[in-house]
Write a structure and sequence with these properties.
mainly alpha
Length: about 180
């Protein structure tokens, strides 16, 4: 019965998140992209395509992190409940004479172990996705820098700054500046 409470909570969170417009992909958009060699050797078109692949994968990982955040919170609440249930059961057992024995009883209780396993799973999955997203982000930064540097080396009329027109007129100085020069 109490297990159903947490499953319903997780479903409610997923439903409410989708109501806000969150619709994560059910599968990755592609295989995890990789540079696979020097960036400088690639054409602009290849770099832009690669950047788009990295961006799509970055979004996919971010969506997975968001989902894991919800699962971690629900799993943590379930762990806390199972720990409390174990504490109550341990308190009733007269053979558990000290805190260490009561703690061991709780940690080996099957309901607590199951809840803790779920919590560790989602916490670990979230951490791994975060690390993968950091790696993708670093690579995207490198690709972005390369694309930016190329626009600086080969300016097109789109990126060039118009030249300032030189004026033949002498600037007019205010009276107090002209008087101080005398």
């Amino acid at each position: 019965m109490k297990k159903d409470i947490f499953l319903k909570l997780r479903e409610t969170i997923e439903h409410d998140l989708k109501e806000t417009g969150f619709h994560p992909a059910s599968a990755p958009p592609c295989r995890e992209p990789s540079l696979g060699g020097p960036v400088a050797d690639r054409s602009d078109r290849e770099l832009k395509g690669l950047y788009d692949e990295f961006l799509a994968f970055y979004e996919y990982l971010t969506d997975n992190i968001v989902r894991c955040l919800g699962f971690v919170s629900v799993a943590k609440a379930r762990v806390d409940l199972k720990k409390a249930e174990g504490l109550l059961a341990a308190r009733k057992d007269d053979s558990l004479t000290n805190a260490e024995l009561r703690s061991s009883y709780i940690m080996t209780e099957p309901g607590y172990l199951s809840a803790y396993r779920d919590y560790i799973y989602f916490k670990t999955m979230m951490s791994m996705h975060e690390e993968r997203r950091k790696k993708i982000s670093k690579t995207m930064d490198r690709l972005g820098r390369e694309l930016w540097l190329r626009t600086q080396k080969e300016p097109t009329h789109e990126f060039t700054k118009p030249e300032a027109k030189s004026s033949r007129y002498k600037p007019v100085l205010p009276d107090f500046v002209r008087n101080s020069e005398d």
